Amino acid sequence: MSKNIIIYILIAALTTLTGISAQDGRTAYNFLNTTASSHAYGLGGTNISIVDDDIFLYEQNPALMGPEMDMQLGFNYMRYLGGSNYAGVRFGKEAGDHAAWAAGIQYFGYGEMKNTDVTGEILGTFKPSDIVFSGSYSHDFSSYVRGGITMKMIYSNYEQYSAFAIAADLGVNYYNPDKDLSLSAVAKNLGGQVKRFAEHYDRLPWDIQLGYSQSLNNGPFRLSVTAVNLTKWHLPYYDKENDNDPNSPLVLKDKFISNLFRHLIFALEYAPTSKFYLGIGYNHKTKTDMTTFSRNFLSGFSAAAGLRASKFRVGIAFAQPHIGGTTFMVNLSTNLYEFKR
Cys bridge to 81: 99, 115, 245, 325, which one at CB 3.0-4.6 A? Predict the structure, then answer.
Protein backbone atom coordinates (compact mmCIF):
# COMPACT_ATOMS: atom_id res chain seq x y z
CA MET A 1 0.00 0.00 0.00
CA SER A 2 2.79 2.45 0.93
CA LYS A 3 4.61 1.73 -2.35
CA ASN A 4 1.45 2.48 -4.35
CA ILE A 5 0.91 5.76 -2.50
CA ILE A 6 4.48 6.86 -3.23
CA ILE A 7 4.06 6.01 -6.92
CA TYR A 8 0.74 7.92 -7.15
CA ILE A 9 2.28 11.00 -5.51
CA LEU A 10 5.27 10.82 -7.84
CA ILE A 11 3.10 10.56 -10.96
CA ALA A 12 0.91 13.47 -9.78
CA ALA A 13 3.97 15.65 -9.15
CA LEU A 14 5.48 14.85 -12.54
CA THR A 15 2.18 15.50 -14.30
CA THR A 16 1.94 18.88 -12.58
CA LEU A 17 5.47 19.75 -13.67
CA THR A 18 4.60 18.72 -17.23
CA GLY A 19 1.57 21.03 -17.22
CA ILE A 20 3.53 23.99 -15.83
CA SER A 21 6.37 23.63 -18.31
CA ALA A 22 3.97 23.30 -21.27
CA GLN A 23 2.21 26.62 -20.69
CA ASP A 24 4.40 28.70 -23.02
CA GLY A 25 4.74 25.99 -25.68
CA ARG A 26 8.56 25.98 -25.76
CA THR A 27 10.38 22.67 -26.16
CA ALA A 28 13.79 21.84 -24.78
CA TYR A 29 15.73 18.68 -23.87
CA ASN A 30 15.08 17.14 -27.29
CA PHE A 31 18.28 15.12 -26.88
CA LEU A 32 16.13 12.81 -24.74
CA ASN A 33 14.65 11.52 -28.00
CA THR A 34 18.05 10.15 -29.09
CA THR A 35 18.34 6.57 -27.92
CA ALA A 36 21.43 4.98 -26.36
CA SER A 37 20.53 1.59 -27.87
CA SER A 38 22.18 0.69 -31.17
CA HIS A 39 19.52 -2.00 -31.58
CA ALA A 40 16.68 0.54 -31.38
CA TYR A 41 18.56 3.20 -33.35
CA GLY A 42 19.05 0.83 -36.27
CA LEU A 43 15.34 -0.03 -36.23
CA GLY A 44 14.22 3.51 -37.00
CA GLY A 45 15.40 5.35 -33.87
CA THR A 46 12.63 4.17 -31.54
CA ASN A 47 11.47 0.67 -30.62
CA ILE A 48 9.68 -0.03 -27.34
CA SER A 49 8.65 -3.66 -27.94
CA ILE A 50 11.75 -5.70 -28.85
CA VAL A 51 12.26 -8.33 -26.14
CA ASP A 52 15.92 -9.24 -25.60
CA ASP A 53 18.34 -9.44 -22.68
CA ASP A 54 20.00 -6.19 -23.77
CA ILE A 55 20.83 -3.64 -21.05
CA PHE A 56 20.31 -0.75 -23.47
CA LEU A 57 16.81 -1.65 -24.65
CA TYR A 58 15.25 -0.81 -21.27
CA GLU A 59 16.15 2.82 -22.02
CA GLN A 60 13.37 2.66 -24.62
CA ASN A 61 10.89 1.03 -22.25
CA PRO A 62 11.62 0.21 -18.59
CA ALA A 63 9.15 -2.69 -18.82
CA LEU A 64 11.59 -4.50 -21.14
CA MET A 65 14.00 -4.95 -18.23
CA GLY A 66 13.87 -8.10 -16.11
CA PRO A 67 15.87 -10.53 -13.95
CA GLU A 68 17.51 -11.88 -17.13
CA MET A 69 19.68 -8.73 -17.16
CA ASP A 70 21.27 -9.62 -13.81
CA MET A 71 24.80 -8.20 -13.43
CA GLN A 72 24.87 -6.84 -16.99
CA LEU A 73 27.18 -3.89 -17.65
CA GLY A 74 27.14 -1.88 -20.86
CA PHE A 75 28.91 1.03 -22.55
CA ASN A 76 27.62 3.05 -25.49
CA TYR A 77 29.09 5.63 -27.84
CA MET A 78 27.56 7.58 -30.69
CA ARG A 79 29.10 9.88 -33.28
CA TYR A 80 26.18 12.18 -34.02
CA LEU A 81 25.66 15.10 -36.39
CA GLY A 82 28.28 17.84 -36.57
CA GLY A 83 30.80 17.61 -33.76
CA SER A 84 28.40 15.95 -31.34
CA ASN A 85 29.43 12.89 -29.36
CA TYR A 86 27.25 10.90 -26.99
CA ALA A 87 28.45 8.29 -24.49
CA GLY A 88 27.17 6.47 -21.44
CA VAL A 89 27.30 3.48 -19.12
CA ARG A 90 24.51 1.30 -17.65
CA PHE A 91 24.30 -1.49 -15.10
CA GLY A 92 21.41 -3.86 -14.34
CA LYS A 93 20.69 -6.20 -11.42
CA GLU A 94 17.89 -8.62 -10.61
CA ALA A 95 15.73 -7.95 -7.55
CA GLY A 96 14.27 -11.36 -6.86
CA ASP A 97 12.67 -13.71 -9.35
CA HIS A 98 10.20 -11.17 -10.72
CA ALA A 99 11.89 -7.76 -10.57
CA ALA A 100 15.01 -5.87 -11.59
CA TRP A 101 16.65 -2.48 -11.18
CA ALA A 102 19.21 -0.55 -13.20
CA ALA A 103 21.20 2.67 -13.09
CA GLY A 104 22.92 4.67 -15.80
CA ILE A 105 24.54 7.91 -16.83
CA GLN A 106 24.44 9.42 -20.33
CA TYR A 107 26.55 12.32 -21.59
CA PHE A 108 25.64 14.51 -24.58
CA GLY A 109 28.46 16.75 -25.86
CA TYR A 110 27.98 19.14 -28.78
CA GLY A 111 31.54 20.10 -29.58
CA GLU A 112 33.15 23.52 -29.28
CA MET A 113 31.19 26.67 -30.08
CA LYS A 114 32.10 30.35 -30.33
CA ASN A 115 31.10 32.72 -27.55
CA THR A 116 30.22 36.19 -28.90
CA ASP A 117 28.73 39.40 -27.56
CA VAL A 118 25.72 41.24 -29.01
CA THR A 119 27.93 42.90 -31.66
CA GLY A 120 29.30 39.58 -32.88
CA GLU A 121 32.76 39.98 -31.39
CA ILE A 122 34.26 36.61 -30.43
CA LEU A 123 34.96 36.44 -26.70
CA GLY A 124 36.11 32.82 -26.60
CA THR A 125 34.68 29.34 -26.91
CA PHE A 126 32.58 27.01 -24.81
CA LYS A 127 31.43 23.39 -24.88
CA PRO A 128 27.69 22.92 -24.19
CA SER A 129 26.62 19.60 -22.71
CA ASP A 130 23.78 17.67 -21.13
CA ILE A 131 24.01 14.86 -18.57
CA VAL A 132 21.24 12.43 -17.64
CA PHE A 133 21.36 10.30 -14.49
CA SER A 134 18.77 7.52 -14.53
CA GLY A 135 17.43 4.81 -12.28
CA SER A 136 14.92 2.14 -13.31
CA TYR A 137 12.78 -0.51 -11.69
CA SER A 138 10.57 -3.19 -13.26
CA HIS A 139 8.29 -5.89 -11.90
CA ASP A 140 6.33 -8.79 -13.37
CA PHE A 141 2.57 -8.38 -12.89
CA SER A 142 1.97 -11.85 -14.34
CA SER A 143 3.73 -14.40 -16.53
CA TYR A 144 2.85 -12.25 -19.57
CA VAL A 145 2.78 -8.66 -18.31
CA ARG A 146 5.59 -6.53 -16.91
CA GLY A 147 5.63 -2.88 -15.84
CA GLY A 148 8.48 -0.47 -15.23
CA ILE A 149 9.47 3.07 -14.34
CA THR A 150 12.59 5.11 -15.07
CA MET A 151 13.46 8.27 -13.16
CA LYS A 152 15.79 10.75 -14.87
CA MET A 153 17.72 13.68 -13.39
CA ILE A 154 18.78 16.01 -16.20
CA TYR A 155 21.52 18.65 -15.93
CA SER A 156 22.29 21.08 -18.77
CA ASN A 157 25.25 23.44 -18.97
CA TYR A 158 25.40 25.95 -21.85
CA GLU A 159 28.20 28.48 -21.28
CA GLN A 160 27.04 30.64 -18.31
CA TYR A 161 23.54 29.13 -18.31
CA SER A 162 22.49 25.93 -16.56
CA ALA A 163 19.24 24.12 -15.84
CA PHE A 164 17.99 21.07 -13.99
CA ALA A 165 14.96 18.92 -14.76
CA ILE A 166 13.27 15.76 -13.51
CA ALA A 167 11.50 13.31 -15.81
CA ALA A 168 10.05 9.81 -15.74
CA ASP A 169 9.20 7.09 -18.23
CA LEU A 170 6.31 4.73 -17.40
CA GLY A 171 6.05 1.54 -19.44
CA VAL A 172 4.14 -1.72 -19.70
CA ASN A 173 4.84 -4.75 -21.89
CA TYR A 174 2.85 -7.85 -22.80
CA TYR A 175 4.93 -10.74 -24.13
CA ASN A 176 3.70 -14.16 -25.27
CA PRO A 177 6.76 -16.38 -25.84
CA ASP A 178 4.74 -19.08 -27.60
CA LYS A 179 3.74 -16.65 -30.34
CA ASP A 180 6.82 -14.42 -29.95
CA LEU A 181 4.36 -11.53 -29.70
CA SER A 182 5.24 -8.33 -27.86
CA LEU A 183 2.95 -5.33 -27.24
CA SER A 184 4.07 -2.22 -25.36
CA ALA A 185 2.90 1.20 -24.25
CA VAL A 186 5.11 3.95 -22.82
CA ALA A 187 4.60 7.46 -21.50
CA LYS A 188 7.97 9.18 -21.89
CA ASN A 189 9.57 12.24 -20.32
CA LEU A 190 6.80 13.13 -17.89
CA GLY A 191 8.09 15.97 -15.74
CA GLY A 192 9.57 19.42 -16.06
CA GLN A 193 12.24 21.90 -15.06
CA VAL A 194 13.22 22.48 -11.45
CA LYS A 195 15.87 25.09 -12.30
CA ARG A 196 15.30 27.21 -15.41
CA PHE A 197 17.81 28.54 -17.94
CA ALA A 198 16.30 32.02 -17.74
CA GLU A 199 12.92 33.52 -16.89
CA HIS A 200 10.68 31.03 -18.69
CA TYR A 201 10.06 27.30 -18.31
CA ASP A 202 11.01 24.99 -21.16
CA ARG A 203 8.80 22.01 -21.94
CA LEU A 204 10.20 18.48 -21.98
CA PRO A 205 9.46 16.41 -25.13
CA TRP A 206 6.91 14.18 -23.40
CA ASP A 207 5.25 11.57 -25.56
CA ILE A 208 2.98 8.53 -25.59
CA GLN A 209 4.15 5.59 -27.70
CA LEU A 210 2.76 2.18 -28.70
CA GLY A 211 4.76 -0.76 -30.01
CA TYR A 212 4.20 -4.11 -31.72
CA SER A 213 6.79 -6.80 -32.47
CA GLN A 214 6.28 -10.37 -33.67
CA SER A 215 8.23 -13.01 -35.51
CA LEU A 216 6.82 -14.09 -38.87
CA ASN A 217 5.52 -17.68 -38.64
CA ASN A 218 7.89 -18.24 -35.67
CA GLY A 219 10.79 -17.94 -38.09
CA PRO A 220 13.99 -15.87 -37.99
CA PHE A 221 12.30 -12.72 -39.30
CA ARG A 222 10.65 -10.29 -36.88
CA LEU A 223 8.46 -7.31 -37.75
CA SER A 224 8.04 -4.21 -35.59
CA VAL A 225 5.73 -1.22 -35.86
CA THR A 226 6.11 1.67 -33.41
CA ALA A 227 3.69 4.59 -33.11
CA VAL A 228 5.23 7.80 -31.76
CA ASN A 229 4.23 11.43 -31.14
CA LEU A 230 0.75 10.31 -30.13
CA THR A 231 0.14 13.45 -28.08
CA LYS A 232 -0.35 15.37 -31.34
CA TRP A 233 -2.05 14.11 -34.51
CA HIS A 234 -1.11 16.92 -36.93
CA LEU A 235 2.55 16.77 -37.94
CA PRO A 236 2.60 19.00 -41.05
CA TYR A 237 5.69 19.51 -43.17
CA TYR A 238 6.72 21.26 -46.38
CA ASP A 239 7.70 19.38 -49.52
CA LYS A 240 8.83 20.49 -52.97
CA GLU A 241 6.10 20.61 -55.58
CA ASN A 242 8.54 19.18 -58.12
CA ASP A 243 11.50 17.10 -56.83
CA ASN A 244 13.38 17.52 -60.12
CA ASP A 245 13.30 21.33 -59.92
CA PRO A 246 15.66 22.87 -57.30
CA ASN A 247 13.67 26.13 -57.48
CA SER A 248 10.32 24.41 -57.03
CA PRO A 249 8.03 26.11 -54.48
CA LEU A 250 7.25 24.35 -51.20
CA VAL A 251 3.83 22.90 -50.53
CA LEU A 252 2.34 22.23 -47.10
CA LYS A 253 1.59 18.52 -46.48
CA ASP A 254 -1.03 17.95 -43.80
CA LYS A 255 -3.36 15.25 -45.11
CA PHE A 256 -4.50 12.14 -43.27
CA ILE A 257 -2.05 9.72 -44.93
CA SER A 258 0.99 11.97 -44.48
CA ASN A 259 0.15 12.51 -40.81
CA LEU A 260 -0.44 8.79 -40.26
CA PHE A 261 2.91 7.68 -41.67
CA ARG A 262 4.81 10.41 -39.83
CA HIS A 263 3.59 8.74 -36.63
CA LEU A 264 4.79 5.25 -37.61
CA ILE A 265 8.22 3.59 -37.61
CA PHE A 266 8.67 0.25 -39.41
CA ALA A 267 11.42 -2.30 -38.80
CA LEU A 268 12.39 -5.77 -39.94
CA GLU A 269 14.96 -8.04 -38.30
CA TYR A 270 16.69 -11.25 -39.24
CA ALA A 271 17.78 -13.22 -36.15
CA PRO A 272 18.56 -16.87 -36.97
CA THR A 273 20.02 -17.42 -33.48
CA SER A 274 20.05 -15.62 -30.13
CA LYS A 275 23.67 -14.62 -30.79
CA PHE A 276 23.23 -12.68 -34.02
CA TYR A 277 20.81 -10.25 -35.67
CA LEU A 278 20.56 -7.88 -38.60
CA GLY A 279 17.92 -5.17 -38.74
CA ILE A 280 16.68 -2.32 -40.89
CA GLY A 281 14.26 0.47 -40.01
CA TYR A 282 12.35 3.21 -41.78
CA ASN A 283 11.25 6.45 -40.11
CA HIS A 284 9.04 8.48 -42.45
CA LYS A 285 9.13 11.56 -40.23
CA THR A 286 12.93 11.67 -40.40
CA LYS A 287 12.80 11.41 -44.19
CA THR A 288 10.17 14.13 -44.62
CA ASP A 289 11.88 16.41 -42.08
CA MET A 290 14.87 16.46 -44.44
CA THR A 291 12.76 17.51 -47.46
CA THR A 292 14.16 21.04 -47.70
CA PHE A 293 17.72 19.98 -46.85
CA SER A 294 20.27 17.69 -48.50
CA ARG A 295 18.15 14.58 -48.41
CA ASN A 296 19.20 11.45 -50.27
CA PHE A 297 17.81 7.96 -50.76
CA LEU A 298 19.08 6.79 -47.36
CA SER A 299 17.26 9.53 -45.44
CA GLY A 300 14.82 7.91 -43.05
CA PHE A 301 16.48 4.49 -43.27
CA SER A 302 18.76 2.99 -40.63
CA ALA A 303 20.48 -0.35 -40.09
CA ALA A 304 21.73 -2.36 -37.12
CA ALA A 305 23.66 -5.53 -36.40
CA GLY A 306 24.49 -7.40 -33.23
CA LEU A 307 26.82 -10.25 -32.30
CA ARG A 308 27.28 -12.14 -29.04
CA ALA A 309 30.62 -13.92 -28.72
CA SER A 310 32.50 -15.27 -25.71
CA LYS A 311 31.91 -12.92 -22.76
CA PHE A 312 30.91 -9.84 -24.75
CA ARG A 313 28.03 -8.55 -26.82
CA VAL A 314 28.53 -5.92 -29.54
CA GLY A 315 25.88 -3.88 -31.36
CA ILE A 316 26.34 -1.30 -34.10
CA ALA A 317 23.96 1.00 -35.96
CA PHE A 318 24.22 3.36 -38.92
CA ALA A 319 22.01 6.11 -40.38
CA GLN A 320 22.41 9.02 -42.81
CA PRO A 321 19.57 11.54 -42.35
CA HIS A 322 21.08 13.73 -45.08
CA ILE A 323 24.19 13.82 -47.26
CA GLY A 324 26.32 15.78 -44.78
CA GLY A 325 25.23 13.92 -41.68
CA THR A 326 26.29 10.31 -41.19
CA THR A 327 25.67 8.90 -37.71
CA PHE A 328 27.23 5.82 -36.14
CA MET A 329 26.55 4.09 -32.82
CA VAL A 330 28.20 1.21 -30.97
CA ASN A 331 27.13 -0.72 -27.86
CA LEU A 332 29.39 -3.02 -25.86
CA SER A 333 28.04 -5.07 -22.96
CA THR A 334 28.95 -8.04 -20.81
CA ASN A 335 27.56 -10.08 -17.96
CA LEU A 336 29.92 -9.82 -14.99
CA TYR A 337 29.02 -13.38 -13.93
CA GLU A 338 30.83 -14.61 -17.03
CA PHE A 339 34.19 -13.61 -15.54
CA LYS A 340 33.65 -15.85 -12.49
CA ARG A 341 33.57 -18.99 -14.61
Answer: 325
- For residues 150 and 131, give the distance between their C-alpha atoms in angstroms, rounded to a whole number: 15
What is the C-alpha separation between 79 and 90, in angstroms, rounded?
A: 18
pLDDT tens digits along 63-122: 999 998 899 999 999 988 777 899 999 999 999 999 999 999 999 998 887 887 777 778
Please give the helix or strand (H or E) that residue 18 lies within, else none: helix 2-21
DSSP-based three-state secondary structure for 198: coil
36-60 as b/e, with b when 16 or more CB fall inside 10 Å? bbbbbbbbbbbbbbbbbbbbbbbbb
Phi first, then psi, for residue 179 (nearest 5°) are -100, 0
Alpha-carbon distance of 75 to 334, in angstroms, equals: 9
The three-class DSSP label of residue 134 is: strand
| Strand-pair partners of 153 | 133, 166
Nearest-angstrom CA–CA distance, 272 and 278: 9
Q: How many CB atoms sit inside 10 A of residue 66's CB?
A: 24
Q: Name every residue whose Cβ is closer than 8 Å to that of residue 61 and which is 6 or more positions away in sequence.
A: 48, 49, 148, 169, 171, 173, 184, 186, 211
214 contacts 180 by C-beta, under 8 angstroms: yes
Taking alpha carbons only, the member of 130, 68, 128 closest to residue 102 is 68
The verdict on pTM exceeding 0.90 is no
DSSP 8-state secondary structure symbol assigned to residue 249: P
Which residues form the domain of 84? 2-340
CATH number for the domain that contains residue 208: 2.40.160.40
